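Demo today. Your pick:
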Amino acid sequence: MNNPRQYIATLDGWRSIAIATVLLCHGLTLTSPTTRWERLLNPIVLNLGQQGVSLFFAISGYLITTLLLNEYRANGAVSLKGFYTRRVFRILPPAYAYLTVIAILSAFGAITLRSGELASCVLVYNNYWPGRSWFTQHFWSLSMEEHFYMLWPLLAFLGPKRVRWAAVAGIALTILWRPFGLHAFSLNVAELQRTDMRLDAFLFACLLALLVHDNERLQRRLGTPWFFGSVVVVLAAGYGFDLRHPMQLTKLAFQSFMLPLVVVPTGFMPFSRISRLLEAAPFRWLGRISYSVYLWQQLILRGAGADSGSAMLSLALRLPVILALASASYYFIERPSMRKGRQLSSRQALIH
């Protein structure tokens, strides 16, 4: 627990589930479903993708807060310079590699990019940029994550106890602002892809991390099969209700609250079946490369088939290509750059 970069194995398993839902969404969602089966399947698959991205946000909120708390406990302070160095080397090199490839493809006429969209990705304001092609649309969530990484660590100056109230205030303000911002403040972009509309997706997980950190009694209560099972049932019921009665704003608040309650307890029940499953080698591997998978799937999954059968076949044929590209990105770009970021942040700590 004294290592500020402590590894939480179950989170890789959850990342694998999150990226799997995104792949299913992008690979199987049909633009013009014709049969009854396709009309039934389409909203389910589409909602899975949305939940997968929300799951990534919950993982980020919990993990980043836990790492900051561990560092605060070990050193009595948080090195913002070290934190931002690690984040820059973790996030930007793989993303810029992907952007370089699509820029080259665009230059040779293989794909078409719109004016300004590459800059919106490089400078992390893609979710506020209206002109995006398919090839950079997924950078909305990466931009949102970067905004969270920029803002949340600054609250370390408040200390672990007072920052809880900052999280509560951020959640309340986001939920109150969302209906107003949706109808009265248009920026000609997808409203629910804006950072100001979705901060609660991170902050509920941040708040839970603050509450459970060093609280062994609460960890034991959360880390029970009955609690985990109850939360899964409630989440599934809410998901089913949403498919029948779409309530987007209510759904977002519900997801933001419930997803951390699913993710976090598995870290406190290491000998349970669900935790052992999440920590199985295939899940951990896919979770480790999930960021690179998320980047590269957008280039390969360019439109599903005309029907569900051809879409499934197309996804099955393209999946090995996605995994090969993501593996190359992870082992040759992402992992070396993370190692470099850790080395630089360690040197900074020694100097100070």
